[in-house]
Amino acid sequence: MNAAAGVKTLRIDERDFSARADETILEVARQNGIFIPTLCELKGLSEVGACRLCLVEVKNSNRLLPACVTRVEEGMEITTNSQRLERYRRSILELLFTERNHICSVCVSNGHCELQSLAQKLGMDHVHFPYRYPKAQVDASHPRFLVDHNRCILCSRCVRVCDEVEGAHTWDVKGRGINTQIISDLDQPWGSSETCTGCGKCVHVCPTGALSEKGRSVAEMMKRRQFLPYLTLMREDRE
User: Fold this and answer.
1) Spacing of C-alpha 83 from chain mean position
2) pTM score
3) Per-residue pLDDT tens digits for 167-215
4) Taking the domains of the chain in order of start, what are their residue ranges?
5) For residues 174 and 181, is the Cβ–Cβ distance under 8 A?
6) Do residues 59 and 14 make contact, with C-beta atoms less than 8 angstroms apart?
């Protein structure tokens, strides 16, 4: 009866819940105060399942599933916290730190960085993998903002907010694997972009210090994302 009415019943961490059929595991968990770490996900933007930090265990599934893009199903039994998941999540964070040059002590977002906060919360106090120390570029050609590719974690939030909210699609992704990089326009300097409106939305959704505003101190780098929940409500009204 519940399934026919579009309502699913499931268990998360040995607790029973009900949810709409169109909801994801992550949405249900957050509605009920269950913590699942994320970096690429942000309410108001489309889900891409890029960072894989939200992986959860689902009974009778041989693989871990990303909670942000996995819809609930009737009778699901989900585990959001286990030694296996903790090991995977710490490894993912360590790889993010080793692939670029994240030096917290000199970063403008030190103290206001989601990557840094998650590392602390998940107990990642050192890295087991060798650092790559790439020589990534810093583009300061824009009059107000700059992009430091050394601190980019390829979450694609900037790409999605510029496309889905601002409608400019200044940002995109080039390359594959370890050579992937966020680019503006057709890999042109940000300051010479003909599509950028200068709204700064991309800066405020960035989880690290990859996108920042020039002249801002650490204490001033708090992100302002109030426009995203309102956008979600507007979309739902149109539908």
Assistant:
1) 23
2) 0.88
3) 999 999 999 988 999 999 999 999 999 999 999 999 999 999 999 999 8
4) 7-81, 86-225
5) yes
6) no
DSSP string covering the chain: -TTTTTEEEEEETTEEEEEETT-BHHHHHHHTT-----SS--TTS-----S-TTEEEETT-SS-EETTTPBP-TT-EEE---HHHHHHHHHHHHHHHHHTT--GGG-TTTTS-HHHHHHHHTT--S--SPP------EE--SSSEEEEGGG-----HHHHHIIIIIS---EEEES-GGG-EEEETTTB-GGG-SS-----HHHHH-SSSSEEETT--GGG-----THHHHHHHHHHHH-
Quickly tell me which residue has 């992986």 as its tokens: 55
In tens, the pLDDT along 77-119 reads 999 999 999 999 999 999 999 999 998 888 888 888 999 999 9
CATH architecture classification, 7-81: Roll (3.10)
Arithmetic mean of pLDDT, 28-33:
97
Q: Do domains 7-81 and 86-225 have the same CATH topology?
A: no
What pLDDT was estimated at residue 1? 41
What token pair was written down for 69? 């893009």
Polymer length of the chain: 239
3.40.50.300, 3.60.10.10, 3.30.70.20, 3.40.50.1820: CATH of 86-225 = 3.30.70.20
Torsion of CA 46, 174, 100, 118, to 10 degrees: 10
pLDDT of residue 237: 53
* Residue whose C-alpha is closest to residue 93's, from 124, 65, 56: 124
Q: How far apart are CA 155 and CA 112, in angstroms?
A: 17
